[in-house]
Design brief:
- This protein is of the alpha+beta class.
- The chain has a two-stranded antiparallel ribbon with strand order 1-2. Strands 3-4 form a two-stranded antiparallel ribbon.
- 28% of the residues are buried.
- Strand 9 (260-262) and strand 10 form a beta hairpin.
- Helix content is 34%, strand content 10%.
- The chain has a domain at 217-240 and 272-408.
- The radius of gyration is 24 Å and the shape is globular.
- It binds zinc ion.
Length: 429
């Protein structure tokens, strides 16, 4: 977080919070029970040297697990030996890279697919996208045989197995950590793993299936942003444009969208994923007239710019509310039916993912649904929608299976806590 708000743009402090999962689920994320265990002061972010700062915390955690601490039980009027372990870490995606040591940039940015992640380097947009979600479909799904609707080829590969805990441990166990600025590259055969995380000092850490969770809040925010930017064709946020269309020409798909040169001008035919001006107006008006209960969300009306027909200043919780309840209502009657249905299904998936109660029997169906919807998005939307955050949606269900409902391990309580911390900064010095 930046403790100085808007006064200093590049100051970065890193609070480290502990949540107690022994408490009942309706209490354990409450601010009263959050423990601010340390504060990495900044002004620069620690990057992968964060392990140096975490050493005292890890020492305490090591003691808590290996030796235990004598604690007084006021109810039974006797002392007992308390043991505690870290269940998972939860952070945004760049911090995921810092903590785990995985390089979350470049062609193999997905830490769960690792070397099997399928990427495409866009030549015109200079962006890496992670597509081919048809690999995650069932073996004989009809989408696998389609060519022109997707990238021009059939898909016969099966889904890559998620990287298991032992595979990760085998890769990082021999890495020699080198901290600090001036250093030689660690020589190891670990492919994308740049360090052995300090958490491996805890004896149980190598037994965890999921060590660092993907934060649903950030995934939802990024997906919502790129979706709304593309639907409303907001300048600077849209994934559509001349470069995107040239990409389609290179891939040889969707001829109707190819740019047409008329003299000095280039004409981009209207696409199914952008709204017409009339549709934009009805979308914005729908949002403006939306009424919600007190405390449910921020004032949605203030997010809409009716003159410019776009949404401005979307915060993560606004995106959450949009994706959960509002977006699929607001797009009714606009867009072609197939695109509208795909977006609605995506909204329903996020609604199911964020549910507080999840039936484990339904996870298989949900997992299939996620893949089908992502394939539909690949069909209708330009490839640049699938940045790494768009791809990570496919792995969210696996983490629910391993770690339980997301409301216990997403960053909303953390963000609220950071707001409190920022309130303490009265004087910059
Ligand atoms: Zn992946």
């Amino acid at each position: 977080m930046n403790p100085y708000g808007n006064l200093s743009t590049n100051h970065s402090s890193w609070p480290v919070l502990l949540f107690i999962y022994n408490l009942p689920p309706w209490l354990c994320m409450k601010q009263k029970y959050v423990m601010l265990s340390m504060m990495i002061p900044g002004p620069r972010q620690p990057g992968k040297d964060i392990d140096v700062y975490l050493r005292p915390l890890i020492d305490d955690l090591w003691k808590l697990w290996e030796e235990g601490v004598h604690v007084w039980d006021a109810n039974l009027q006797q002392s007992f030996l308390l043991h505690a372990m870290v269940f998972c870490t939860i952070n945004d995606f760049p911090a995921y890279g810092n903590l785990s040591g995985y390089s979350v940039k470049g062609h193999h940015a997905c830490p769960i697919c690792e070397q099997n992640s399928s990427f495409r380097q866009l030549k015109h947009g200079k962006k890496t996208v992670y597509t081919r979600h048809r690999r995650f479909l069932k073996p004989y799904h009809p989408y696998r045989r389609l060519k022109m609707a997707f990238d021009g080829s059939q898909e016969h590969e099966i889904a890559p197995n998620p990287l298991s805990r032992d595979e990760v441990y085998d890769q990082v166990k021999d890495v020699v950590n080198m901290f600090g600025k001036f250093q030689k590259k660690p020589s190891s055969n670990a492919y994308m793993w740049k360090k052995k995380s300090i958490f491996f000092d805890l004896s149980y850490w190598s037994d965890h299936h999921v060590r660092h969770c993907i934060d649903v809040m950030h995934v939802e925010k990024n997906v919502c942003d790129s979706l709304i930017g593309t639907l409303l064709n907001i300048k600077g946020k849209t994934n559509d444009g001349l470069k995107c269309r040239q990409e389609l020409v290179d891939m040889g798909i969707r001829q109707v969208l190819h740019p047409i040169s008329k003299g000095p001008r280039t004409y981009l035919p209207p696409a199914c994923y952008t709204m017409s001006t009339t549709e934009k107006r009805s979308f914005c008006q729908c949002l403006c007239t939306m009424k919600v209960p007190q405390g449910y969300s921020s004032n949605i009306k203030s997010l809409v710019s009716v003159t410019e027909l776009k949404l401005v200043g979307l915060k993560s919780h606004d995106c959450h509310v949009l994706m959960q309840q509002i977006l699929h209502v607001a797009i009714r009657g606009t867009l072609p039916k197939k695109v509208r249905v795909a977006i609605t299904r995506l909204c329903f998936i996020f609604n199911a993912i964020c549910a507080k109660v999840i039936d484990p029997k339904q996870l298989d169906d949900l997992e299939n649904e996620v893949v089908v919807v992502l394939c539909q998005m690949e069909m209708y939307f330009p490839p640049s929608v699938f940045d790494i955050m768009g791809h990570l949606v496919v792995h969210l269900l696996r983490e629910i299976r391993c770690c339980g409902p997301v409301f216990l391990r997403w960053m909303y309580p953390v963000e609220r806590y950071m707001k409190v911390l920022k309130g303490y900064t009265k004087n910059q010095y």
